[in-house]
Amino acid sequence: MVEVTSAVDCHNELGEGPVWCPVENVLYWLDIRGKSIWRHHPASGKTENWATPEQPGSMALRQNGKGLVVAWWNGFRFFDPDSGAIEVIHDHEQDNPNSRFNDGRCDRQGRFWAGTMDDTYAESCGSLYRLDADLQFSVHETGITTSNSTAFSPDGRTLYYCDTPQNEIWAYDMDAESGHISNKRVFASTEHLKGEPDGSTVDAEGYLWNAMWDGACLVRWAPDGSFDRKIDLPVDNPTCPMFGGDNLDIIYVTSAREELSAAQLREKPLAGNVLAVRETGASGLPEPRFAG
Q1: 288 falls within a domain
Q2: Domain contains 207
Q3: Is 248 part of a structural domain of the chain?
Q4: Which strands sit side by side in the sheet containing 75-79, from one edge to the other?
Q5: Who contacts 45 (Cβ-Cβ below 8 Å, separation ≥6)?
Q6: pLDDT of residue 96
Q7: How many domains does the chain contain in total?
Q8: Which of 107, 118, 198, 236 is catalytic?
Q9: Can you give the residue range of the structural domain that contains 13?
Q10: DSSP conformation letters of 152-195
């Protein structure tokens, strides 16, 4: 029997981007609208957060440096939670004030992929960026409204990605050595489900877990793109799943209060919290760190 509980009572406006650190045994995530980065230690119950000058969209732990690489509103940054130090790597899309970074994740080789979006949800002005270990970046998709669902197969040869309003998740072949992607195709259609696809993660068997915004559920897709199962959640707007815990068998799910009425918030009081989903029978893989 699947068990869903509230793991962190944080009431984020737009919780996103969870990352589990097996070294610290902590969960990192961010609140985009709340301009903050969070860290929770399940064993002690201690929760911390740091205010950020920009809205952060996604992040990854660093392999060779201290702290995090973060895709903030206008570009890539290094951020050290211990000191609060911020280092600008690149600024992007300065000509469009409504463009901001959103979902992102490292591939198995330690390259950080993150996509931009139109914060007004009106224009297809977003792009998919890749930041390499040498801090050079490249663009791999354009014409995106809302970048989401960035995830990688266990062998690193498939990239998953979506433009949320399209109601489908795409798959690309990826050359592990170069990071070049090709053969874009529809991996799974979500048109028959309530809500729209948001963030994703992949388990050890290669199944893709996707959070359905306005769908109040997690959906698991088989490696061939077929529907596997759905897990209902006590929040309307789950945003992204991440495997964590000592055995990587707890699915932590961030969520949002944004766009919910007072009546909806009364009905779903856990909105904006981090949820913990247990007893799914699935386990994850260690999250890759940024190689720079």
Answers
A1: no
A2: yes
A3: yes
A4: 56-61, 68-72, 75-79, 86-91
A5: none
A6: 86
A7: 1
A8: 198
A9: 3-278
A10: E-TTS-EEEEEEGGG-EEEEEEE-TTT--EEEEEEEEE-TTSSS
Q: What is the pLDDT of residues 236-281, one digit of tens each?
A: 999 999 999 999 999 999 999 999 999 999 999 999 999 999 999 9
Q: Which two tokens stand for residue 205?
A: 């068997």
Is pLDDT of 94 > 90?
no
198 included as an active-site residue? yes
Which pLDDT score is estimated for 145? 96
pTM score, whole prediction: 0.97
Report d(CA 53, CA 86) in Å as an integer: 10
The answer as to whether 289 is a domain residue is: no
**Distances in whole angstroms, Cα of residue 138 to Cα of each of 130, 134, 151:** 5, 12, 18
CATH code for position 195: 2.120.10.30
Contact 275, 6 (CB under 8 A): yes
Structure tokens at 155: 């062998």
Q: Is 262 helix (H, G, I), strand (E, B) or coil?
A: helix
